Structures are given as C-alpha cells and as structure tokens.
TrEMBL record:
<dbReference type="GO" id="GO:0004497">
    <property type="term" value="F:monooxygenase activity"/>
</dbReference>
<keyword id="KW-0560">Oxidoreductase</keyword>
<protein>
    <submittedName>
        <fullName>FAD-dependent monooxygenase</fullName>
    </submittedName>
</protein>
<keyword id="KW-0503">Monooxygenase</keyword>
<dbReference type="InterPro" id="IPR036188">
    <property type="entry name" value="FAD/NAD-bd_sf"/>
</dbReference>
<dbReference type="Pfam" id="PF01494">
    <property type="entry name" value="FAD_binding_3"/>
</dbReference>
<dbReference type="InterPro" id="IPR002938">
    <property type="entry name" value="FAD-bd"/>
</dbReference>
<feature type="domain" description="FAD-binding">
    <location>
        <begin position="6"/>
        <end position="319"/>
    </location>
</feature>
<dbReference type="GO" id="GO:0071949">
    <property type="term" value="F:FAD binding"/>
</dbReference>
<dbReference type="InterPro" id="IPR050407">
    <property type="entry name" value="Geranylgeranyl_reductase"/>
</dbReference>
Amino acid sequence: MRSESADVVVVGSRCAGAAAAIEFARHGRRVIALDSARFPSDTLSTHLLWPTGVAELETLGALPRVLKAGAPQLRTALAGGSGHTVRTDFAAVPGIGYAMCVRRIALDAALVDTARESGAQLREGALVTELVADAGRITGVRYRDRSGATAEVLAPLVVGADGRRSTVARLVGADIPYRSADSGRACYFAYWADAYPAWRTTAAQWRAGELLGTAFPCDDGLVLCLIQPPVARAERGQSAAARLYREFIAEIPELAARLRDCTQIGRVRTAADLTSYFRRSAGPGWALPGDAGHFKDPVTAQGIRDALRYGRLLAAAAAPVLDDPRALDRALRDWELERERDCLPVYQWTNRLARGEPMTALETELYRAAASDPELAARVLEVMTRVRPPGRMLAPGTAVALAARAAWRGRTTPITVADTLFREARDTVRDRHELWTARRRGLPPLPATVAVD
C-alpha cells in the first residue's frame, strides 16, 4: 500500500474543505485534499450567498474566479407576504454590497482551482474508507484512488469536510448530534431560463399560507426557484415532485408572475427529512467544518457562508500548532466553541422559520411596518446577512406594539394575539436559556467511541 505524509489531510474539497486547504497552504503547510467527485461537479444545494458569504470568497482569493461564472450581483432584497412587499438594499460588509447565487458546479470548481493555486494538492476520485489512529489520536486516512488501489496519507490533522453524511464523523463516532431539530419544511427547487432582465439584480422571497418560495437569479442566465412547503404536503418520487412543484408555484401569485414567461430547465430536485444539528466537531487529530459538523435548514441560506468561514478559521487556528498535539487540541476546541457561539443564535432563529406554518399576525404587521420604514426593513435584512444578531432585530416592546396593531385592525382576535405573544415569549425564553447554558457549560463530552486504536 502506497503511504505518504502531509501536514494536514482534508477529506472533501467543496466549500469548507477548499477554504481550509487554501488557508493551510497559505500558512506554508503541505495539504493533501481528497474528494470522491471529479470537478467540475454539481451537488444538491440552493447556493445563495449573502454579502458576508461573498466577503468570505474575497478573503480566500476565490472571488475573481467566482465572478467569471457570470452570476449577477444581487443588490436588492425583496420579501413579500400577506399583501405587503418589503424592498431594501444590501448593506455593505467589508466593501461587498451584494449577494450572489452561483451554481455549485461553478462555485466549487472556482474554490478547487484557488486551492490548487495556493499550493494545496487536490486528488479527485479518491474515496476515504478508513482512518488511521495511534494511541487514541487520528493520524491519517486510507482511501481508494481512481484505479481502485488503496493508499494512505498520514498527517497530524484530518479535516472531515465531507458533508452531512460525513464518513469522518461516522468513523470517529461523532455522527450523532448533541443538538438537533427536525425541519417542518421540505425543499423543491429547479432552474428557469430567466425572461426578465429587470429582475436580475433582485433576490426575492414570498410567503403565501404555509408556503415559502424564492427566485434568485444565478449564472448562465438562469433563476433558481425554491419552494419550501410544510413536510405534511411533501411527497416522494420524481413525478410527484414535478407536479407538486408547479402546484406550489401557482399558490404563490407573485412568484407565479415572476416566472410567467420563464422556461424550466432540467428536473425538479428535492430534499426532505431535513434535520438541523450540531455535532461534536473537534477531537484528537480531527475536526469537522461545514455540514459535517453543523447544519441549518436552507430557509435562511447560511450554510455556504459558515462552511467557508469556519473552514478558513479552522486552518488559521490549527496551522501554527500542527506540530504540537496539546496546542493543536486547544486550538481545535477554541475553534469549535467560536463556531457554536456564532452559529447557535442563527440556528435557533432558522428553526423558527423552518416550522412550515403560515405567517402570524405579528409577522404580517412586521411586513406592513417594514414596507414603509426603510430602517426597520434594513434591520430585518441585517439579521439574515449576519450583520445583526436575531435577538437585536426588534427594539424592546416592538412585538407588543405589532400585536396591538394587528388586534386594532381586526386582522385577528385578542385571544389569538395573546397566544402568539405567549408563544414568542416562550420561544425567546427557551432560546436564551439554551444560549446561556451553552456558554456556561461549554461543549458536551466527546463520544467514548472517538478514541480509536
């Protein structure tokens, strides 16, 4: 069996893995990245990047390549629901004042090319099958190459950036989440040849009843239309997906109008039974950035930003201490804690939006108010783009004021308003308690099975 050594081996070369490989290589480390795919290669993803995600691409040096894919710069955000439409521009984050929706076949290829240019060795068609361990530390991987031969890479650190069904997470015993929540929504999405140039700089989302639908212009003149129905209305099978997708679009009049003269390109893709989670993501000689360690429902489009950011920050923290196991373990644990503290509030907020329920009276009043209040509209968008924490979206007492307006307009009964306020208060207390507990207790213990020999 062929065996070689590196400073770090990265399993998976998409967003998190490529970001880690780029940053390790910039620190002068010898990086070998393995991926079972051959690039350019597509993957199941709704791939919207808010400005903070675009800024990560710029930090990694990949943005010029990504821009060449031709996806338009989305400078306006639109949200519609209950007869109200909110429009606002994206606030600039380190010089980036636009979002982008780049298909993964182009985005991942740009990241892979940037990693290679940075000095990382990327091997395609390489399927990791085993981990190598010594005295409880992970010390490398074994994989099958394109010819079917088995090879081995030994390294002080194995980075498992191999997605929700992570082989590395399973092999170290960390695949069972310590925090999880089932989504109340399923996903149906497809691409359309866009017939409306005037819409090419607008990222749009509409809600109608229990449905949520989006239209995000992307590369090659296409627009990505995503529908998220409640799971109770989802069905399996391609023929059912194609039928339901069209029916759901018809139930959102504004989205149907947006696509009226557009032509669907390709089949409808689906994702069901989604579960958001945190897994233990760092142990002796291993780490799990990206979806391998943490996943959120796509309703808030946070996954790519977090994968890029925490792949990069993992490498920045670990690269200087790869030769000192104790210092490396501390750096990995600090990195994992930082990700939890940054991502947990957004995870909680995402879980609320993923319930698959109609807009509440409070949400309707929020849309109504934001439609005529640019400052409020900007605050709401800043939560989505990670500029403002979810807990600081509304000023104290705003929810009560919105509920009072809803009751005064006769849109709902006082009992319903009281129930909604009670639920909001209960959820807020629960979320704050979870945040307080997470900060006070830190991370849970590693699973006993992690110490493999």
